[in-house]
Design brief:
Blueprint: H1 2-26, E1 32-36, H2 43-59, E2 63-67, H3 74-81, E3 89-94, H4 95-104, E4 116-131, H5 140-149, E5 155-158, H6 164-176, E6 181-184, H7 188-196, E7 202-206, H8 207-215, E8 220-224, H9 239-243, E9 250-258, H10 263-277, H11 280-285, H12 298-315
Parallel strand pairs: 1-2, 1-3, 5-6, 5-7
Antiparallel strand pairs: 3-9, 4-7, 4-8, 4-9
């Protein structure tokens, strides 16, 4: 009886493996949900919609963007973490969600180290440090100098803890030894409006969102938080150029699947994302607008996740849980 049982067990394992392989080869056979953790119109949403269009063409099934804003990405993260791991519910995840939120929120609806398979990075979008055109500070060094002498008196608006401009503020303070008065708002739009209305002294705005506001002179740009100048803003220097200290931050977006998603499905998604990332569609609508291309390999994304988690663990004191 033992030998037949072993044969039966082996047959079952082979059957499951064959079924998984067949599923991966035909994936996707239906529409795929692309869950975005923020509202429509922001840089993460724009990136998701452009890649959804490209993936729909590449894989022959609709990739449907679903905005699930709230709890700094916690609602979307919790939804996808509990979803069936079959490749049909995916998450557009940001560095704030997997590296910053675990340190600043006492509880999350997801565990970034256990609940997800990190498929591929999509884009990195730096921010632009800016003030109102009538600001008394003519440059970033002058703003930093004033912040150093007026501890927590100069206000810096953010879209709340964990947001991209919150991260940039932390990096700027750490690099310069200053302390601004952080003023959180519900969204990036409200955060920017605070500077335009002069209710906040400074902010950081996504390089993609900044274009029209810079062109219309509603804000005065100081520097970009990237390693090099952006193609669409060649006249705006990097922070390192004007301060001599590196401040590189913004919004890194990538695609994550529920943990346990078949490796072949992940591989197929990764290959498709790499093709879309190299397309004219993405170049014209994302990379030429202020976002930067990133290595789309799964290995690169997994390493970036670990690096970001280690970096922020050294910058932020974890809250008690």
């Amino acid at each position: 009886m033992i030998q037949p049982l072993r044969l039966l067990t082996a047959s079952c394992v082979l059957a499951v493996m064959a079924g998984t392989t067949a599923q991966a080869q035909t994936y996707p056979t239906q529409a795929v949900r692309l869950v975005v953790p923020f509202g429509a119109g922001g840089v993460t949403d724009i990136t998701a919609r452009v890649f959804a269009e490209g993936l729909s063409r590449e894989l022959g099934q609709p990739f449907v963007v679903e905005n699930r804003a709230g709890a700094a990405g916690g609602i979307a993260g919790g939804l996808v973490a509990k979803a069936r791991p079959d490749g049909y519910t995916l998450l557009v995840i940001t560095n704030g969600m997997f590296a910053v939120n675990p340190l600043i929120y006492p509880s999350l609806a997801y565990d970034p180290k256990k609940d997800f398979t990190y498929v591929a990075m999509l884009a990195n979008t730096p921010t632009i440090l800016a003030v109102n055109p009538s600001s008394p500070f003519p440059s970033l060094p002058e703003l930093v100098k004033a912040a150093a002498t007026e501890n927590e008196k100069l206000s810096f608006s953010t879209a709340g803890e964990g947001s991209d401009n919150y991260q940039v503020l932390q990096l700027l303070q750490q690099a310069t030894g200053t302390q601004f008065l952080a003023v959180p708002y519900k969204s990036g739009t409200e955060s920017l409006t605070a500077v335009i209305n002069r209710t906040a002294d400074a902010t950081a705005i996504s390089a993609v969102s900044a274009v029209s506001f810079v062109d219309s002179k509603q804000i005065r740009p100081f520097a970009v938080t990237s390693s090099k100048r952006l193609a669409n803003f060649p006249d705006i220097p990097t922070v390192k150029e004007v301060l001599g200290k590196s401040v590189e931050g913004g919004s890194l977006s990538g695609l994550a699947a529920p943990a346990g998603t078949p490796a072949e499905v992940v591989k197929r998604l990764n290959a498709a994302i790499a093709k879309v990332a190299g397309s004219q569609l993405v170049h014209e609508r994302i990379y030429s607008k202020g976002s930067e291309p990133v290595d789309p390999s799964q290995t690169a994304f997994e390493k970036r996740v670990r690096d970001e988690q280690a970096k922020w663990a050294g910058l932020l004191k974890p809250v008690a849980k």
